[in-house]
Write a sequence for this structure.
C-alpha cells in the first residue's frame, strides 16, 4: 500500500505539495508514483527562476524503461531545486516525501491551492 | 491478446504484464535493475515463447536456407546453431534469426515475434523454387524458456538431474525429460552463458516450475522483458525494429560479419556487394553519455550543428552504471572517441563513441 501523509495536498497526476509559508510550497512525487515507476535512474529539473504553470510539465523522471513528465501542481516561480535527486535519483524511490523532494516554488496564485486534492480525495483517485 | 503457456506462472510471481506484439508478456516481476544483476551474477529464467519457430524440412532444405540467409550454413555441423540476418533483394534486413541444423534435410528457425507472419510469407514464397521443402510454423505448439547467467549450467543440472556442460556454445541436443523430448540449446540474448530450451507447450509450465523449484536455494529469479532489453544492449546484441529494419542493411550495423560474400548466391548479395564496393555511408556504433541524460530510440544525433543520425537503442546500463546506446550515424563520425551530441527533449547532451560490447563476461 502506498503511503499518503495526512499533512500534504495532492494532484491526480501523483504529485504532492507541502505548504511551508503563505507564499511558498515544496513539491515532489507520491509514494504511489515512485512505486509505479520503480527504478528511477534519472531526474531532470527546471532551472531556478523558471516560471511554472499549474498542470504543465515541469520535470522529467526516467525509469530504466521510459521517460515520464512530472506536472507542476501549482503556478509560480522555482526558488530551489533538489540537487541530490539529480545526483542520486534512487533517493526518490527511497524517500519520496522527504529527501526525494523536487522543487520549492513561490506561488503566484494562492487560490490554486484550493483545487488540489486532500489526502482522502487522493486515496480515492490513486485507487481507481 | 495472446497468452503464452506460462501466463499463469507470471501472474503467480506478480509480474507487471505488458502487450508485446500481440502477446501479454512480463515486463518485470521485481525491479528491472535487480533482475538484471541477478542474471549477471547468478541466473535468471525467461519466458520467450512469443518468439516464432519454424521447422523447414525436405530434400532441398540446405540450398533453400543458403539462399535466404546471408551467413553460411554450409559449414554447420549437425546440432549446431547459426545467427544470421535474412535480407531482401536490396540487402535490407527482413529479420535476424537463429538457424538450427538437425541435418541437411531438417532445420529449425527461431525468428522475432513481431516478424513471424512476414517471415513465414517470405519464406513460403521463396521456397517454391526449392521443392520439396516444407515450412511449418510450430510457435503455438512448442514453448521456449531461457535460463541465462553464470550459474545456468549448475541450475539446469540441478533441475533435470543430468550433465549438460557437454553442449558447447551454439550447439544443441535433445534430452528425454520424464518421457518428454525437450531440446536444449547453448544460446541466449544476454551476453552470459546460458540455455534456451524448447519444450512441448503442454509441458512448459511444468518445466518452468521445476526449474524454479529446484533452484529456490540458488535464488533463481524470473526475468521480464525490461531486463532482457538492458542485458542485450550491454552485450551489444541488436534488437529488430530498434537497431535494424528493412531500410538498414547488415553492413551498416555491428553484424556485418554475418554477410558471407564468398558463398553462392543469396538474397541481397549483389546489392550488398555494390554497397560494400561503393563504401558504406552510415554505421551503427555504440556510445556512452558524458553529460547526464538517458538516450532513447529515435533521439537525433548531432556533430556540431549537423544532424548525423539517430539513436536506435538507449538505456541506463546497470552493469556499467552509465547511460549507453547505439546510434546509426554518418560513417565519417563512427570512430572510437568521436564526440557527439544527443538531443534529449530540447537540449543537446555530450556523448562519445565507444568500443562495443559495453559489457563482456569474464
Amino acid at each position: 500500500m502506498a503511503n499518503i501523509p495526512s499533512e500534504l495536498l495532492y494532484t491526480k497526476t501523483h504529485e504532492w505539495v507541502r505548504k511551508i509559508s503563505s507564499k511558498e510550497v515544496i513539491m515532489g512525487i507520491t509514494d504511489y508514483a515512485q512505486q509505479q515507476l520503480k527504478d528511477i535512474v534519472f531526474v531532470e529539473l527546471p532551472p531556478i527562476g523558471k516560471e511554472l504553470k499549474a498542470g504543465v510539465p515541469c520535470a522529467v523522471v526516467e525509469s530504466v524503461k521510459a521517460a515520464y513528465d512530472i506536472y507542476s501542481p501549482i503556478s509560480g516561480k522555482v526558488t530551489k531545486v533538489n540537487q541530490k535527486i539529480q545526483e542520486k535519483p534512487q533517493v526518490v524511490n527511497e524517500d519520496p516525501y522527504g529527501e526525494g523532494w523536487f522543487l520549492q516554488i513561490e506561488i503566484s496564485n494562492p487560490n490554486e491551492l484550493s483545487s488540489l486534492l486532500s489526502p482522502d480525495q487522493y486515496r480515492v483517485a490513486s485507487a481507481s | 491478446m495472446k497468452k503464452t503457456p506460462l501466463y499463469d506462472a507470471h501472474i503467480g510471481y506478480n509480474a507487471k504484464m505488458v502487450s508485446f506484439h500481440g502477446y501479454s508478456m512480463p515486463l518485470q516481476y521485481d525491479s528491472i535493475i535487480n533482475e538484471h544483476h541477478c542474471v549477471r551474477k547468478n541466473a535468471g529464467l525467461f519466458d520467450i515463447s512469443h518468439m516464432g519457430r519454424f521447422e523447414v524440412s525436405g530434400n532441398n532444405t540446405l540450398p533453400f536456407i543458403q539462399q535466404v540467409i546471408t551467413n553460411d550454413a554450409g559449414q554447420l555441423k549437425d546440432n549446431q546453431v547459426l545467427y544470421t540476418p535474412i535480407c531482401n533483394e536490396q540487402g535490407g534486413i527482413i529479420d535476424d534469426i537463429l538457424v538450427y541444423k538437425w541435418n541437411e534435410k531438417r532445420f529449425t528457425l527461431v525468428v522475432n515475434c513481431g516478424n513471424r507472419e512476414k517471415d513465414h510469407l517470405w519464406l513460403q514464397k521463396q521456397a517454391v523454387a526449392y521443392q520439396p521443402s516444407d515450412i511449418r510454423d510450430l510457435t503455438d505448439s512448442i514453448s521456449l524458456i531461457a535460463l541465462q547467467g553464470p550459474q545456468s549450467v549448475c541450475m539446469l543440472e540441478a533441475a533435470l538431474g543430468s550433465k549438460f556442460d557437454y553442449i558447447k556454445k551454439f550447439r544443441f541436443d535433445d534430452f528425454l525429460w520424464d518421457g518428454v523430448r525437450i531440446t536444449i540449446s547453448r544460446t541466449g540474448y544476454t551476453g552470459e552463458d546460458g540455455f534456451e530450451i524448447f519444450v512441448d507447450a503442454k509441458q512448459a509450465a511444468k518445466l518452468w516450475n521445476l526449474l524454479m523449484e529446484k533452484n529456490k536455494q540458488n535464488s533463481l529469479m524470473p526475468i521480464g522483458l525490461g531486463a532482457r532489453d538492458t542485458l542485450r544492449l550491454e552485450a551489444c546484441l541488436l534488437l529488430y525494429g530498434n537497431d535494424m529494419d528493412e531500410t538498414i542493411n547488415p553492413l551498416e550495423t555491428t553484424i556485418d560479419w554475418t554477410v558471407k560474400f564468398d558463398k553462392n548466391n543469396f538474397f541481397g548479395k549483389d546489392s550488398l556487394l555494390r554497397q560494400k564496393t561503393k563504401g558504406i555511408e552510415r554505421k551503427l556504433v555504440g556510445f556512452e553519455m558524458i553529460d547526464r541524460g538517458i538516450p532513447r530510440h529515435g533521439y537525433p544525433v548531432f556533430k556540431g550543428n549537423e544532424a548525423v543520425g539517430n539513436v536506435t537503442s538507449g538505456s541506463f546500463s546497470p552493469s556499467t552504471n552509465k547511460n549507453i546506446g547505439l546510434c546509426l550515424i554518418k560513417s565519417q563520425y563512427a570512430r572510437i572517441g568521436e564526440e557527439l551530441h544527443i538531443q534529449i527533449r530540447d537540449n543537446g547532451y555530450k556523448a562519445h563513441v565507444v568500443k562495443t560490447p559495453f559489457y563482456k563476461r569474464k
Q: What stands out?
A: Chain B has a mean pLDDT of 97. The interface with chain A takes residues 27-28, 31-33, 226, 229-230, 292-294, 296, 315-316, 318, 323, 345 of chain B (CB under 8 Å). The domain at 2-51+140-233 of chain B is CATH 3.30.1360.120 (Gyrase A; domain 2). Residues 153 and 165 of chain B are 6 Å apart (CA to CA).
